[in-house]
Task: structure prediction
Amino acid sequence: MPGVTGPSDYSREPPRHPSLKINAKEPFNAEPPRSALGAAYVTPVEFFYKRNHGPIPVVDDVHSYSVSITGLIENPKQLFLNDIRALPKYNVTATLQCAGNRRTAMSQTRTVKGVGWDVSAIGNAVWGGAKLADVLELVGISKLTGATKSGGKHVEFVSVDRCKEENGGPYKASIPLIQATSPEADVLLAYEMNGETLNRDHGYPLRVVVPGVIGARSVKWLDSINVIAEECQGFFMQKDYKMFPPSVNWDNINWSTRRPQMDFPVQVKVSGYAASGGGRGIERVDVSVDGGNTWVEASRHQKTGIPYIAEATCSDKWAWVLFEALVDVQQSTQIVAKAVDSAANVQPEKVEDIWNLRGILNTSWHRVQVRVGHSNL
Ligand code: MTE
Result:
């Protein structure tokens, strides 16, 4: 592609924040520490996870960079960055999450394949760019089109990076045409992230952002957009990012039996407080999403949001501890939280066991019933 090249080695990688936890060096895959992730609603760019399958492309001349739009359409076009910038600009706040987020924890049950991730392959950014629906209108595809006259039903995004999974070819993925042409779906061709020019790690000069869908479909370093009849046949659509039941293993897998994963499942942030008397600290907070059968440990923090007190003059010994955990909730269930203090006191399971006629000191596990409804987009 003019202006942008996909190197074959890792000698021209961009600088990165030293506190990122590197899960794989080449290709570069890294996530921020848990504490950095929860600190802000909008994740700073330097702490946004980086998920790559090859060396980061190099932009030599952004003015000659263009995206070609081809395939089953009447008016194929080549669009320069200025053409895309000339379209109405939208800022969309969207959480991007890698489907492999929290993979390391899954491997504790049974080992799984792939780069290991803790819980931070997720970030929330304000993406700025043109709507794909507007871009497609430039080539004669009207909004809310499910198929073109020539049979186009999917929109494929092809990049410039070279991936070994594609035998040295570019990363690619597709989404249904109906989603691409729907203004409400907010699919963007983004050139900005958090108000700044997109950086190299995140797809400079132009990337796709498909909100609400696993990160794998948000193709970075966009080279071409192809309107096609069937979904993209690339590795990452057909031989990866599909969900199989636990009975499927590497000996009996049949990839064609499952559809490529698109939306990511419901995930909730569980947060709350934990406190113990006598100046004892909170040692641990556990959260369960199956009524108390299995548990994950929540992260804990204190001293946030006290702007009027200098940190050094204020002890947190007597204060509560705030906790947070990100959990998957696939169906209606009961979420439970329980804390352990520094003397290893743990909250009792049932309120029946500590019932008293004045109704005080109910420290039993806190249970919250959640109901999950499903809607079809
Ligand atoms: N696009 C290209 N060209 N190459 C890639 O390796 N990785 C995908 C997606 N787009 C990838 C890509 C995956 S799996 C994810 S989760 C997101 O980009 C990560 O985006 P980020 O690195 O900006 O966080």
Observations:
- The mean pLDDT is 90.
- Helices lie at 34-38, 81-85, 103-107, 132-138, 177-180, 235-238.
- The chain has two domains: 4-257, 267-370.
- Residues 132-138 form the longest helix (7 residues).
